[in-house]
Amino acid sequence: MEILTTAEMERADRLTIAGGTPGFSLMMSAGQAVAEAAMDLVEEGPILVVAGRGNNGGDGFVAAAELAARGREVSVILLCERDSLKGDAALAARGWKYPVLPFNPQAIGKPALIIDALFGAGLDRPVKGEPHEMIEAVNAHDMPVLAVDLPSGINGTTGAPMGIAIRATETVTFFRRKPAHLLLPGRVHCGRVRVADIGIDPKVLEEIRPATFENVPSTWQHAFPVPKIDGHKYSRGHVLAVSGDIAATGASRLAARGALR
């Protein structure tokens, strides 16, 4: 039920790594979860991974290697030079033993599935230049798209498109949902959302203390009053409906009427 902002999710990662879990282990688990979702989405046909230069792209490389190991035909388009990758993303790229395609919309071809691993939830600036052209080209195709963590171009906290954003069929996020998975228009861009366990201990939430939760019955059901068999109008609470002048009372009247039922 907890919803983590991008800053809170970054903190969950840091706390997990500080607790002894290598960051690359988290990336491996994330990429494997993406590969599993891809296998569920399309049972056959080539798969294209569009990877960025950060950890989101690293997740994409892990997914590509996992899918190839399972016998799938996989290609990778990379935003930057392979040698320029750093940290865990560079380690993930070393696990991909095949060439990468140039970052060009013409390289998309006609795959059965596109995995969007271009930008993650931490995007904080408008999408421009080549990434803008690539997202535009992906959206112009009619094949399903699987987004890694969040559709590229969506602000993870507000759910707003940063100039342009991927329209995904399904999104795989990790540990907990982010606000953009539930807020419009990000929610529409995400498609179905799958939350994957990548090895982050839920106990980190005790330190993070998130203040946002998904609005589901289990959140508030324990506090919802249930009428008792001997209840009456004086024991079920009172409603005060405040409206405008005589010409603007319709909504208040309807609300009061509904409360009396």
Description:
The chain is of the alpha/beta class and 261 residues long. The chain has two domains: 2-213, Rossmann fold, CATH 3.40.50.10260; 225-260, no CATH class. The chain is 35% helix and 13% strand. The chain has nine helices and eight strands. It has a six-stranded parallel sheet with strand order 3-2-4-5-6-7, with helices on one face. The radius of gyration is 23 Å and the shape is elongated. The model has no long low-confidence stretch (mean pLDDT 93).
Could you give a quick summary of the protein structure above?
This protein has 261 residues and is an alpha/beta fold.
Layout: helices, strands, pairs:
Blueprint: E1 2-3, H1 6-18, H2 23-41, E2 47-51, H3 55-69, E3 74-78, H4 87-94, E4 113-117, H5 129-140, E5 145-148, E6 170-174, H6 186-190, E7 192-196, H7 204-208, E8 212-213, H8 217-220, H9 250-260
Parallel strand pairs: 2-3, 2-4, 4-5, 5-6, 6-7
Antiparallel strand pairs: 1-8
Describe the structure using short key phrases.
2 domains; two-stranded antiparallel ribbon; 13% strand; elongated; 261 residues; alpha/beta; Rossmann fold; six-stranded parallel sheet
**What is the strand arrangement across the widest sheet?**
3-2-4-5-6-7
Report the average pLDDT across residues: 93
Weakly predicted, low-confidence segments: none
What is the distance, rounded to the nearest whole angstrom, between the alpha carbons of the first and last residues?
A: 31 Å
Coarse shape: elongated
CATH-defined superfamily of the largest domain? YjeF N-terminal domain
Radius of gyration based on Cα positions = 23 Å
- Estimate nothing, just give the exact number of structural domains: 2
What amount of the residues lies in strands?
5-15%
**Helical proportion?**
25-40%
CATH topology of the largest domain: Rossmann fold
Q: Output the helix-strand order.
A: EHHEHEHEHEEHEHEHH
Give a quick account of the main beta sheet: strands, pairing sense, barrel closure. 6 strands, parallel
**Quantity of strands, as a count:** 8
Query: How large is the count of helical segments?
Result: 9
Structural class: alpha/beta
The CATH architecture assignment of the largest domain turns out to be: 3-Layer(aba) Sandwich
CATH uppermost class of the largest domain: Alpha Beta
